[in-house]
Prior knowledge:
By secondary structure, this protein is of the alpha/beta class. The protein is 26% helix and 26% strand. Helix 3 crosses helix 4 and helix 9 (243-253) packs across helix 10 (271-279). The model has no long low-confidence stretch (mean pLDDT 96).
Amino acid sequence: MSVREFVVLGTASQVPTRHRNHNGYLLRWDGQGILFDPGEGTQRQMLRAGVAAHDIDRICVTHFHGDHSLGLAGVIQRINLDRVPHEVTAHYPRSGQHFFDRLRYATAYRETVKLTEAPVAADGVLAATPAYTLEARRLSHPVESFGYRLVEPDGRRMVPELLAEHGIKGPDVGRLQREGELRGVRLEDVSAVRRGQRFAFVMDTRLCAGVHALAEGCDLLVIESTFLDEDEQLARDHGHLTSGQAGAVARDAGVRHLVLTHFSQRYADPREFARQARAAGFTGELTVAADLSTVPVPKRHT
């Protein structure tokens, strides 16, 4: 059975707190695992959340500020220590190659796993697999930053009434799905398009075109809301979003489930982030991320 869920390893911005670890997130997508922004302490948070090094197939770093990348050294060494049996691909801003190199080889260890470096230099598709297409969009932050978007290919949903109308039943249904045509009946004659799921990961950024492009039509949007709305000028100055801005982005993009994260240590009550996102007009499902929590990807549209 396929599993699609988002595992939260840490939710703090800039510095960890007593209740929030540095950033770190794992998206499970049908047996594939994408680790996003492993900050300091990610390796220990993985242990606490039941995430193994073997679960990681890709690493996606949005930018090279410490709270989003200092955990790379430990994660990469753990992948090698545990002799992960598959190739792992790392995506990160090309402009930060020297930071990635320093983190990858921060200390001595034995390399046992193929780690492929696939840096990001511009907007576009990073990888296309049968399960998803991974894309990147440039964001607006004091250092170069990219957000990531995963799109599942559209499929088709069989319509029982149309199958009956064309006399297709039993094993012939599967044969038609495999071959695309049966006795003059095409697959599209008895089915409807089922839109593939969409996921986006948007970290440190001001409002910009990239934010809206990443969020558009997402089933699950994970987005930073470092500041509350009363500190909007502070957010703009430091290249961040407020909870109200994040809620408005999700509202306009038709997001089904919004996950807010990356919270400034100045705020103690997480409920205010949710309140402000709602006040901005977002009416879908809403989660204020907490360390070591898991958020399921919404079920496909029928």
